[in-house]
Design goal:
Strand order of the largest sheet: 1-2
Number of domains: 1
CATH superfamily: MFS general substrate transporter like domains
Number of helices: 18
Shape: globular
CATH topology: Growth Hormone, Chain: A
Radius of gyration: 21 Å
Structural class: mainly alpha
Distance between the termini: 32 Å
Length: 435
């Protein structure tokens, strides 16, 4: 094959999906895995922290929200910085910062310290998910992009579930602080793996005029022994403004996806934050409450894989509608059965539907936006969704403080999920026909 001139996107389209691309997807999945551990861990240990530090519901809600506010701010800042200094550097740096402050969280002796360390840990990891999505998308051919993005997303619910396993295994014997020490060490080990093995995005290197030797090294790692290629900038990708999310008939669809992301993450983080407390009040030990909540996340792993198959074969918007409707019913049922042993399969199914739909929504977003705006679109959707993740724990604290019963609380929380399903159907009719 003779030397040619092409864009990275066109070159990837001509390549078969290789082992190295799958390997990078796994590395990005590890970063998202840490996001899952980070955001869910405090929910699993909340009852123990509540008792040890003598915090009320409002103080615990503030601690829940602090880490999520850090994630929101960190995500917005890291996305901008990553466009200047590269995806790899910022992903590694954010993981290191998160690991350090997660370790420090285990030393907290007051509500103020807990809030501060959770906020700083959130700042560190805030950019992990959008950068991981960007790297996965930019190293994948278009025909496999949605599948790889959803596979990478499995790291989030898996990390959330492992957080429950860690908490239930360590907390009874060593206390809640040791749970954060363990999570911090895991994060630093993942950071070391990223330093050793994670490549920079080929698209970023080309669009930022990197040395030819660096571009060639990444090219050869993607496709060993491939012929010499002169890459040219994808001008649309390198100069796309945020306003591109609202061009070519995408404005209404973008706003609808923001609402769905907000609702999805509000529901997920409400359940992750308050289920251990509710199950504990229902008569389960702290360890069993953590394990029960982890079933929600294991269901999310199954749901991500399950919904991925159906979204490839059927109308993805209708699949999301059915999934969100089932999630609405199951969340409402939790409030009536939280004292019963049958709650365990209900939690698994609820996670399968709710988290599976959240992962599927990101796959829809990666198709909704053109190549030139894909990373920006998905990243901003997630940033808006972070507002929902902040609202979820706070909503639980407000309802509990207002003396809502468990049944009433879960019925109120379930209702927005039905709205998300309706909007998923509406999204089909406002999507650009030539997106």
């Amino acid at each position: 094959m003779s030397a040619s001139t092409t864009t990275v996107e066109q070159w990837l389209a001509e390549r078969r999906l290789g082992v190295f691309q799958i390997f990078v997807t796994v590395l990005c999945g590890l970063a998202v895995f840490l996001d899952g551990i980070s955001t869910q861990l405090i929910g699993y240990v909340a009852p123990a922290i509540h008792n040890a530090l003598h915090l009320d519901h409002k103080q615990m809600g503030a601690a829940f929200a602090a880490g999520l506010i850090g994630l929101l701010i960190g995500g917005l800042v890291c996305s901008v910085v990553a466009d200047v200094f590269g995806r790899r550097r910022i992903l590694v740096a954010s993981t290191l910062i998160f690991g350090i402050f997660t370790l420090v969280t285990g030393t907290a002796t007051s509500g103020t310290e807990l809030l501060a360390w959770r906020f700083l840990a959130g700042l560190g990891l805030g950019g992990a998910m959008p950068i991981a999505i960007t790297l996965t998308a930019e190293i994948s051919p278009a025909r496999a992009r949605s599948a790889l993005v959803m596979a990478m997303f499995c790291g989030f619910p898996f990390g959330s579930a492992i957080a429950g396993v860690i908490a239930s295994a360590i907390m009874p014997s060593y206390g809640w602080g040791a749970v954060f020490y363990t999570a911090g060490v895991i994060s630093l080990l993942v950071a070391a793996a990223l330093i050793i093995a994670l490549p920079e995005s080929l698209v970023f290197l080309v669009n930022h005029d990197a040395d030819l030797s660096r571009i060639n090294r990444v090219q050869q790692r993607i496709a060993p022994n491939s012929a010499a290629v002169t890459f040219i900038k994808d001008e649309a990708k390198s100069k796309t403004p945020i306003a591109g999310l609202f061009r070519d008939g995408r404005a209404v669809g973008t706003l609808i996806m923001w609402v769905i992301y907000f609702i999805s993450l509000m529901e997920i983080y409400f359940l992750a934050s308050w289920l251990p407390t509710v199950l504990n009040q229902g008569g389960r030990s702290l360890a069993n409450a953590a394990l029960g909540t982890s079933l929600l996340q294991f269901g999310g792993v199954a749901g991500t894989l399950f919904f991925g198959r159906f979204m490839d074969r059927l109308n993805p918007h209708r699949v999301l509608f059915v999934g969100y409707l089932c999630a609405c019913l199951l969340i409402g049922i939790i409030g009536y059965l939280y004292r019963s042993d049958i709650i365990l399969p209900i939690l698994f199914l609820a996670g399968m539907c709710l988290i599976g739909c959240q992962s599927g929504l990101s796959a829809v977003a990666s198709v909704f936006y053109p190549t030139s705006a894909r990373a920006t679109g998905v990243g901003w959707n997630l940033s808006i969704g972070r507002l929902g993740s902040i609202s979820g724990p706070v909503l639980g604290a407000v309802l509990l403080t207002a003396n809502f019963g468990v049944q009433a609380m879960f019925m109120w929380v379930a209702a927005p999920t039905f709205i998300a399903g309706i909007l998923a159907i509406v999204l089909q009719y406002v999507s650009p026909k030539n997106g």
